[in-house]
Amino acid sequence: MINKKGKSFYFCWFFFITFVIFLYGPTFTIVLLSFQGPEGGLTFPMNGFSFHWFEKLWEGGGYVDIGSAFRRSILLGIILMILTVILSVSAGMAFRKKFFGSNFLFFLTISSLIVPSIILSLGVALEFRLIDETIKFIGNKYNIDWIINDFQTTLNMFSSGLGAQLTWTLPFGLLIMFAIFNRFDKSFEEASRDLGATPWQTFKFIVLPIIAPSVVGIALFGFTLSYDELARSSQVMGATNTLPLELKGLTTTVTTPVIYALGTLTTGISFLVIFIAIGSFFIIKRKKIK
Amino acid sequence: MNNRKSFFLAAPFYLVFLCFFLIPLILTVIVSFWDYNEYSIIPDFIFENYAYIFNNCFDYSKDVCVTFKTYLSTFYFCFLSWLFTLLAGFTIAYFLAFHVKSLGLQITLFLICTIPFWTSNVIRMVSWIPLLGRNGLFNSFLLSTGIIDDPQEWFLYSHFSVVLAFIHLYTLFMIVPIFNSMLRIDKSIIEAAYDAGANGFQILINIIIPLCKPGIVIGSIFVITVVMGDFITIGIMGGQQLASIGKIIQVEMSYLQLPAAAANAVILLIITIFIIWIMTKFIDIRKEL
Question: What is the enclosing helix (H) or strand (E) of A242?
Fold first, then answer.
């Protein structure tokens, strides 16, 4: 039945194409609308074609400081990417053997993926709030000047924000590592060990080149999931905001195509990262076959 | 590599989940029993936060209480999103697994489905506005064809737009695990059934769907938990008018009523765990990776 190109075949193709239009159509629409002329509004028709709204965005558009939110998000994304790769790869290597608490850690990782994000965000915010209270309490008790005068909060993009995002990116990283090692031929490692290589040499020259394409995948997840993360970050960023948080605020206040220009820009960056990642994935893979 | 070395390799990973997952959850449970006033939270052991949530809920002479109403509305979103993402996700996975023969094309089409997942959710929601709005593309199209006489208001900032956004954002969560299950099905089983005279529909019902059960369950868990705790999609696509549990928690947090928010979070967590527990009765998750 499946070899024959029957009704099911054509229906599925039709459904798939409809789904792809459904997936990409809206994004395509706002990319188009971000080039609206200066007189244009939030919907069609297009009133001419211009870069007006991008210029507005560049000038700041009269809204919050988009530029620095942008830089913060990209910086946080890069840090998340590096941490996700290092932590997932080392944990992935560890999980090939049973170790103390390995089942529990696996359970925690999967739970983190499916626990509603708002609960996690609340929990991390509470944790840092309690740390703050403790620090202030100690400061008052022992009369530590800088705490009494200057201390505000430990809640910060690079403390609580970073941690909350890691609970979202790391499970993906670990699952990718599991997927690799389920199909991993151990005889290469054994051969290298028999030839007298140290564990580090075996990892560097044998294991790492084999898993390299998938490590690119982990890096992609690490960066993009952090760069776009919203729900878990919402309560834990402290005084600063990342780009998605600013964007969420803008959805209710901005009534010009500036928001589409911003959307086009962030989506453009995401796409750039995705294509670099996919490109290097296939380049590394091809090299390996040679 | 011995046991201890493995443990140290995994230690940083462990530490992250202890500090940013386990401890925060435990603190949430603890703080849900605390007292609070306008500007601070006070260590205590009281049940008022919970009592407040279920205020009037068990008085059957009155109307349904706010909490139950909110949960009912959240379940309603869950059910619709689950149903449609399942139908769409299953069809796409079926297409990719059984109709696309070349591996290269399979990977390409799969990536096409995945790429939007790596882009901004907020932007993907915002991008529905020019289509669904009062002067949007759908309304102008329907007006010009004469199907409707007046612009429809219910396309945007409604239950419809919320469910549409959930389907748009989360169908991938169904596609991936179901596709994974389908790839594991031994093709010879299907051929055997075909040789024995089964038609396509019978093969789908009696072989493919039962063997995809783990994928369906995993996908369903993802979609249901993400919708249960949502406050962003319901906020943006509902025009900040619709209630959800996640939104209650978020609002209480913005008023610094942390113990109240924690109590709501604990109840949400219990309900979510209960749903997952029922669903995992059907499968062993660890075997499916």
Answer: none
Q: Whole-model pTM?
A: 0.89
Chain A contact set for B5 (CB, 8 A)? 94
Say yes or no: A17 contacts chain B, CB-CB below 8 A: no
pLDDT over 90 percentage in chain B: 34
Give the single-character DSSP code of B41: E
Model pLDDT, residue B176? 93
Query: Are B28 and A126 inside 8 Å of each other by CB?
Result: yes
Residue of B nearest to A266 (CA): B120
Which residues make Cβ contacts (< 8 Å) with residue B266, sequence separation at least 6? B28, B29, B32
- Residue A203 falls within a domain, yes or no? yes
Q: Do A244 and B122 touch (CB under 8 A)?
A: yes
Query: B60-288 sits in which CATH class?
Result: mainly alpha
Where residue A160 sits, what CATH number does that domain have?
A: 1.10.3720.10
Query: Any idea where the domains of chain B sit in the sequence?
Result: 60-288
The total of structural domains in chain A comes to 1
Whether residue B20 and residue A164 make contact (CB cut-off 8 A), yes or no, is yes
> Which of A15, A137, A140, A280 shows the shortest CA–CA distance to B92?
A15
> Are A259 and B126 in contact (CB < 8 Å)?
yes
Domain range holding A210?
64-253
* Interval B202-206 mean pLDDT: 87
Determine how β-strand B41-42 pairs with β-strand B35-36: antiparallel
Sign of the CA dihedral running B269, B274, B278, B280 = positive
- A273 at the B interface (CB within 8 A)? yes
Does any CB of chain B come closer than 8 Å to the CB of residue A107? no
Please name the residues between 38 and 57 in chain A that touch chain B, using a CB distance below 8 Å: 41-44
Mean pLDDT, to the nearest integer, of A266-283?
Answer: 88
End-to-end CA distance of chain B: 23
Contact call for residues A219 and A81 (beta carbons, < 8 A): yes
Task: Categorize the per-residue pLDDT at A1 as very low, low, confident or very high, splitting at 50, 70 and 90.
Answer: very low
Cβ–Cβ below 8 Å for A129 and B94: no
Q: Does residue B99 register a pLDDT over 60?
A: yes
Provide the pLDDT confidence category of residue A290 given band limits of 50, 70 and 90: low
| Residue A183 within any structural domain of the chain | yes
Q: Contact B28/A123, CB-based, under 8 Å?
A: yes
pLDDT at A154: 83
- Residue A144 confidence (pLDDT): 80
CA distance A145 to chain B (A): 22
Closest of A219, A182, A173, A103 to residue B7, by C-alpha = A103
Reported as a pLDDT band with limits 50, 70 and 90, residue B22 is very high
Contact B92 A94 (CB under 8 A): no
- Is A288 contained in some domain? no
Residue B109: predicted pLDDT: 92
Query: Would you say residue A277 lies in a domain?
Result: no
